[in-house]
């Protein structure tokens, strides 16, 4: 094929039929201008940088400190985002795309973010401390209130232990002492605190067992929902007070409280002290409320101010980070004043790239211009296919199979027509096509609003991203539904049927009056009497929708033959596209010993079968006729395609028929005889097809081996002549090194000696794949017929078993049933026939393009052009954020 890129090469075949021509170029940028130049190239998004330091660790590169600073700024901005979302403050996102800041602006951004982070962390810390103090004071307030109630009840003799608690003699004695006298608790110690409500039962049991019933516990629930002092989560708590006697029990009680994470608070012994402490606590609570409110207002103001700029700041920081990350791909010359980069870029866009470099140099104030120098290379360039919002969906379908090899035919333009068409062949229904068309039209008309809404639902994004694909699928489904004359399993007699009723009305009335059951033959329309000889202008005659007996037989025969025609036509087109690839890459061996034998093989059997199908449709009707000197009595004696194909492969001689009184040859029915000498010609076709197989298998490897042999012999002769000259001149002369040639397209070998084993295996695989694939792929296209039949039958079943029942009832019941059954019919049509059947037809159309069509010419061994683009980087970051 020669070099991929040579200086001065001009772009050929612009557009979407092939990927853009690419070149490898070197950039020479001054150190002062490198940042601005890379920023301009990022805004342009047309160059892919190569890493010139693959063996250097990321931590040892020149701009690693700048990247770390950007990471730190990004971390602070994410912290700001989390705080803003926590307060449910909307972040302003105008979609503005600010320019990448200058390097000196980085310091200002860092200072701003550092100030904001420190201020927020300090405010958060103060708020956390205030909330903790507020929660503790609130709990203390409830403790003082509840304990005062406990002591008052004890003073009146009403303070009794809870049922089932402290039933031992010691416990009873302790209780009696507790409630006796004017100072009932003078001889006992006590602790008070709060504990979570769900831990209370276990807390009581452990106190009872550990203290052997020698403590007295009183609890009361707090009606208000409090916040946990550590986590801040809302919890339900209880106030408890425990009376005990002795230091040993006091130690046990405190350890048990600590184990259950109960919070203990100081509680005065006298009522007067408790009242004074309660008043002080209430005063402190009111003060804390005021301070806490001011703190929260200040925090809210800081976050509101930050929310207006945080998106713009994130964009700036990500641009800076991507620029320095890209600069780490550069090499530095020995003078430390120039940075050298290698980039892949489209040849057609070189002028725009040069202008971007010039703008970057001018903005940086550098006096030395940036230089772009094209290089020669044997490396395969990346594949770059220009797309827009319409073609992107179809290009994604192709790329999902594999990225095109550089400059090979791009299937996308042909897929734009063939994919929705084959889908529609399987999905053909005007009603369902209109539903799909309207849904896609809504997505297209509202695409700007829907894009701005940024709906995260994955299913919605799938349908919205493929809106133009769905639009064409809907349009083609309406067309094929019109050709099938099928709208929700019903037909429309738009042009007037070519069939009339040939059964006498008197006979029908007589049968109905007697209540007799006529045979199927008696109700059959005779073509000679009922058919006027003029076919239905466009599509299928609506009379076939009424034919209960042979409707499926007719439609199956038509759709099966139609599927074979479409399949072989698309496969043949794929082989023709392979010819365009071979000629573009100047691969004469592939043209002579791959394309030509493949076309001959395909024509001898499969295209010949298509001609027979078309001939049977065109020349055989209900009335007798004459074709190629043969007189046929009608459709019943049309040659059988299946039997004819079997006889063709078995090379059977067939009876041509007999000669009538007028000297015409009349064929016998079902003998697959089309023309005189048919057996002879079909035998020739089969033998020619068989002969093409060894040509495809051995011819190309043989000529490759022959070329390699001649090349080696020529190299030896040249080396021998130079050795003789060196001996005559009494000096040593070394043979010059041979510049290796890049691998020829499809030749099966690359640089270095030819490996015949690899070539033969490669060629055998492709030959077997093509020969067997012609048969299996033709059969695979019968899925067009199968899914079309299934879709039509499901639609008919849904109409018959659901909506038609609404027409059986009369009066108000019929009106109500019509509304209800129509709702059910519409819902099932959308969810089953449009969504589920549509997905099934989509997947089958996908397989037909990936396997049956693209395998004939498409290699898909390239790698995608990934330019350095701010737009792409920011979109990926935004998508990653939405997926979190």
Distance linking N and C termini? 48 Å
Rounded to the nearest angstrom, the radius of gyration is 44 Å
Counting DSSP E segments of at least 2 residues, the number of strands comes to: 15
Number of helices: 25
What overall form do the CA principal axes indicate? extended
Mean pLDDT: 82
Percent of residues in beta strands: 5-15%
> How would you characterize the largest beta sheet?
5 strands, antiparallel
Q: Give the helix proportion (percent range).
A: 55-70%
Structural class estimated from helices and strands: alpha+beta
Low-confidence stretches: 5-11, 156-185, 518-522, 721-750
GO molecular function: proton-transporting ATPase activity, rotational mechanism
Function: Essential component of the vacuolar proton pump (V-ATPase), a multimeric enzyme that catalyzes the translocation of protons across the membranes. Required for assembly and activity of the V-ATPase.
Coiled coil: 63-140
Membrane topology: Multi-pass membrane protein
Task: Describe the overall structure.
By secondary structure, this protein is of the alpha+beta class. The chain contains 25 helices and 15 strands. Strands 1, 2, 9, 10 and 11 form a five-stranded antiparallel sheet that branches. The chain has a four-stranded antiparallel sheet with strand order 4-7-3-8, sandwiched between helices. Strand 14 (658-659) and strand 15 form a beta hairpin. It starts with 21 loop residues before the first strand and ends with a helix. Residues 5-11, 156-185, 518-522 and 721-750 have low confidence and may be disordered.
